[in-house]
Amino acid sequence: MIWLIGCKGMLGTELSMLLEKQGVPFTGTDREIDITDPAALEAYTERPEFRGRIGWIVNCAAYTAVDKAEGDVEACRGLNTTGPANIARTARKIGARLIHISTDYVFDGRGIPAGFSGGDPNFPALRPYREDDPTDPIGVYGLTKRDGEAAVLEHNGDSYIVRTAWLYGRHGNNFVHTMLRLMNEQGSVKVVDDQRGSPTWAADLSQALVSLIAASGGAGAEVPGSPAPGVYHYTGEGAVTWFGFAREIYAQGRRLGLITKDCEVRPCTSAEYPARVTRPAYSVLDKGKIKTALGLSIPPWEESLARYLRARGEV
Ligand SMILES: NC(=O)c1ccc[n+]([C@@H]2O[C@H](COP(=O)([O-])OP(=O)(O)OC[C@H]3O[C@@H](n4cnc5c(N)ncnc54)[C@H](OP(=O)(O)O)[C@@H]3O)[C@@H](O)[C@H]2O)c1
After folding, report:
1. I need a labelling partner for 65 at 20 to 30 A (CA). Which of 75, 169, 219, 301 fits?
2. pLDDT digits (tens, 9 = 90+) for 256-313
3. Where are the domains of the chain?
């Protein structure tokens, strides 16, 4: 059985729906089992219905309010560093495997020089971040997530850490929802064109997580030939700026009738949108490791957006 922590968040909701659809046994908790309270975590695993039955823990709970985190350091650290450490210890104690979700914000976003090969087609001087590139977060959120990764691996070296970026899904506030709303309300929207990353549908990531569990034996015990524990990157395939992403949302949303009037999508710079935290300018993650480990083919981000918007239109 899988214990899905943070089951009511954006990724947690999507993963719950997938597990339900695929008939995979799981139990989900959110705020009611506080991850900053180790006794609460342990007590949950001791409930008669779960004792000895939890083979996997997937942690989707986190403090994700990037700007608010700058003034709320202790709460952010509690959820992003202490909580994951508690979960890793609990997993170890009950002999469960752990998947912990992390972020592109562990990098500073200045990119890695490409050298002679492997450059990003749009930024030939840079290449996408690999799992073992040095981390150097630029804000409280990224710092606490980076420390959370280290804490998980320290307390349970058999864990998987899956870093993702630019998530959207059915549940919660996200860029796609915001754009659809603004484009229906306003005659024009201005969107930053100097930050590049890879939009990721939470449903695609959920499928990859289920594949990772299946490839690792499903029942919890490591099987020969299963993906090695450690850090993996997963995002949609391809990369774009927020402006490019918005233009695609507009084009597809208009075609599908989700946007019912004309709206001009205009590029601007990050400097025109003062925020408490500098966002990583180049956030593209190299996904070669997870693709090889799981034999995955990751859909291009535009295709995933189309599937997401079609599914949304049908609701
Ligand atoms: N969203 C993105 O674009 C993005 C990008 C890269 C990586 N990630 C990572 O992906 C993962 C999932 O992100 P998400 O966007 O799905 O997050 P989310 O929507 O903010 O979900 C987090 C969930 O954790 C719950 N939670 C809060 N405090 C808790 C506590 N003390 N104990 C247990 N649960 C608690 C939250 O409840 P409340 O809502 O009531 O607070 C919420 O349901 C996170 O690790 C995040 O860092 C996200």
Report:
1. 301
2. 999 999 999 999 999 887 676 778 899 999 999 999 999 999 999 999 999 999 988 6
3. 2-174+198-236+284-299
Over the stretch 157-196, which tens digit does the pLDDT of each residue have?
Answer: 999 999 999 999 999 889 999 999 999 999 999 999 999 9
Mean pLDDT on 50-65: 97
Pocket probe for ligand 1: among 4, 30, 162, the residue whose CB has the most ligand atoms within 8 Å is 30
Dihedral of the alpha carbons of 191, 197, 203, 205, in degrees to the nearest 10: -160
Ligand 1 centre to CA of 177 (Å) is 17
Q: Whose C-alpha lies nearest to ligand 1, atom 1?
A: 167
Q: How far, in Å, from the CA of 86 to the mean position of ligand 1?
A: 16
141 is catalytic: yes
Q: Is 9 in the pocket of ligand 1 (CB under 6 A)?
A: yes
Ligand 1 near 285 CB (within 6 A) = no
User: What is the pLDDT confidence band of residue 22, given thresholds at 50, 70 and 90?
Assistant: very high
